[in-house]
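Issue: ligand-bound run for iron/sulfur cluster - logging full I/O for the record.

Environment: standard queue, default settings, no custom constraints.

Inputs:
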Amino acid sequence: MQYGFFVDGRRCVKCYACEVACQQWHGLAAATWMRRTVFETVEGRFPAVSRRFASLSCMHCEHPACAAVCPVGAIAKRREDGLVVGDATRCIGCRSCALACPFDVPRYRDDKTMDKCDGCLSLGRGPDEEPRCVLSCPTRALHFGPLPEMEAEAASCGGARLEGATAPAVLVAHRPRPDWASQAAPSPAATDDEVPFDGAAPAAEN
Ligand code: SF4
Ligand code: SF4
Ligand code: SF4
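Outputs:
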């Protein structure tokens, strides 16, 4: 059975609790790289601007390119849950996995061995428990479980599985784009505290 993540971007408020929880539980120093990262995309032009968030980590792909290229077999895909895990005791730090991963996931520790999300298995997470990032999310934007369950949750709100030759086990739903055309134009009136931004330099006062 393949497990995976459903990332409900409609609920994400970009609070970074998932990133911080992962860093702290896995002993990663603050202000270094992260196993999980909250991405933001901005679309439109002020004031018709839309921001979208998605918290992503390793995709635990069904066909992991990282494992396929590792010359010493230090990356394995688990039969029981499909999670893709690294073995630091075998890794020789050649970085082949980082070059092969289409999502730029693998990172390297100070000891020159590869590291990435392991689904919190190294913390002793049981099969019926949720990873730390999922548990820490205050808005329930992150979900983890059997892929068919994640697919059903995503489908109920217009989400879709990420595409790619490696078949990433991650589904994402985004909040709909605002219908700017149907909304009232910004008021031309402005107070001293409410200066409309139009890109021009403010007029000099006499
Ligand atoms: S996202 Fe990259 S590192 Fe993770 S399983 Fe897929 S190919 Fe490997
Ligand atoms: S599952 Fe665990 S290791 Fe992976 S991103 Fe979440 S907290 Fe980090
Ligand atoms: S903890 Fe939840 S709401 Fe906060 S950034 Fe992560 S996914 Fe978004």
